[in-house]
Amino acid sequence: MKKVLLLMSVLLMPMFLTAQDDEIDNLPFDNEPLRDDSRSYFVLAGGLTYDFLMVNEDNLNSFFDMQSESDFKLSAPIQLTGGQGVTGIPWVKNLRVGVFGYGGSTESEISALSGTEIGDGEAQNSLTASLFGFSVHYGYVPFEHFAILGGLNAGWGDVTFETFSASGEMKTDIASDFRMDRFEKNYFFVMPNIQIEYALANFIILRADASYNMTVGQDENWTQNYLGTNSVNPDFDLSGLKVGFGVMVGLVNF
Question: Could you tell me the pTM of the whole model?
């Protein structure tokens, strides 16, 4: 009897399995797409920036022979202050574009001057730089409220070198003669950039960044005293490492 039951079970098993396959095909399974669990980055904000541009000092002090004297030397870095505004692109995940502008200056010491065409007195050099442009970055969010961004800044700016001399003390009104030479030119730059951002709240971001500023084009000559031109120091540029930090306020989602 046991042998008969065993034989019947073996014969009926294929029929049972086939029936199960037919029922599985009729079950209501939905083909749902896989979810993307990576964190998204989106901001719509603006704020202040404070940066240091580390221009090569030999380049910075190559305008005139008198700059070889330590008292007239300009020192790096150039401190830059300004602002920026950024916004995410809703239809491209984690992509951000923005605008920025900042500027700053560096000055030499006021130093004694002798044997010039205006006589004995004091002199000082200064250099002022400004940068304006656009930025594009892609954000990666390793964990909540913290983002790493890589991208590019590009734009234009101007640099002005001025030398002042007076036949007396520059900080008083007793100077009998005064002279100023002003040299100005425009330039274009690109700046590979990496940033780290931390959202203190849904409306405020602290950021730090590092870039390398590269001059990619500039006027051939300097405009001297607004009217003439001068070919002094034709290879001068503002290439160099830039580091900075800032704060932004707005809509924050990362």
Answer: 0.73
